[in-house]
Amino acid sequence: MDAEDEIAPAVQSILDAARSRADPGGERVDIEPRSLSDALSATEADGRAPVIAEVKPTSPTTEGTRRDDPVELAQAMVDGGAAALSVLTEPDHFGGSPEYLERVREAVDVPVLRKDFILRESQLDAVEGDVVLLIVRFVDDLEGLLAAARERGFQVLVEAHTEAEVREAVAAGAEFIGVNNRDLAKLDVDLGTFERVADATAEGTEDVTLIAESGISTPEDVRRLRAAGADALLIGSAIMNYEESDNPAKIVRSNTERLTNAESRTRDNERTDGRTTETRQS
Ligand SMILES: O=C(O)c1ccccc1NCC(=O)[C@H](O)[C@H](O)COP(=O)(O)O
Fold this sequence. Notes:
Layout: H1 9-20, H2 36-45, E1 51-55, H3 70-79, E2 84-88, H4 91-94, H5 98-107, E3 112-115, E4 131-135, H6 142-151, E5 155-160, H7 163-172, E6 176-180, H8 192-200, E7 209-213, H9 219-227, E8 232-235, H10 237-240, H11 248-256
Parallel strand pairs: 1-2, 1-8, 2-3, 3-4, 4-5, 5-6, 6-7, 7-8
Helix pairs in contact: 3-5, 3-11
Bound molecules: the ligand O=C(O)c1ccccc1NCC(=O)[C@H](O)[C@H](O)COP(=O)(O)O.
Residues 10-11, 54, 56, 59-61, 180, 182, 184, 187, 213-216, 234-238 line the site of ligand LARABZUK.
């Protein structure tokens, strides 16, 4: 898909900023990553839904900016049972920074995803993380960038929004594919996106870890997406929007613990769509 095809002005602005951001300079990173597969499997084995909890101070669809210490937030998310963390490093639209990621990764022992809009190889070297995000729609040479990320030791979460993008990600060799429920053309969120795309690509993604992204805010949402085939769930706003009377650990916990009794596991069992799969390891 053409990156400039139908895109929300806020997303165009994010892309423009990513294109004009100076290269980080310095050395090429060389990472010994914490395994995302192992972290997701361990949570699963513990009878909980694997949640990747996101530290996102603000976003184009959020009002205001949270000024909480990212390290305290991250620790609360891990205390709440997050299998892994995602940290925004995009500064201009999400209030993130590579330094936040560095501090968070030092403070926790779960894998940390660098959430940013990476368009070219040099941007991979801004900071060490365990996983980087590449968005199919925005990357010109997905295979090349995937290889460049892996050469540095990163695991890669390849983000898609449509069936065609998932197929592109699979063809490029992605092991982790995120299906974003947020349409970057309009910024609407529709959990049905994951359901439709996972169903349409069931044949072909058997060996892929599928992650449902965006718009997930209740244990019911988690159950619904797990039933549709999500191996893990990426949750940002629902945690970041916690009220003063609440806390992020409690919100993460509510989205994992309550699933213990749900009959929703997908990949290790016979799926409701009749697809039988094996336990995923990579
Ligand atoms: O979050 C946004 O408003 C946003 C706007 C434009 C492009 C990307 C955006 N978010 C990136 C993400 O992928 C989400 O932060 C992530 O999936 C978590 O979503 P949510 O739980 O809905 O915060």
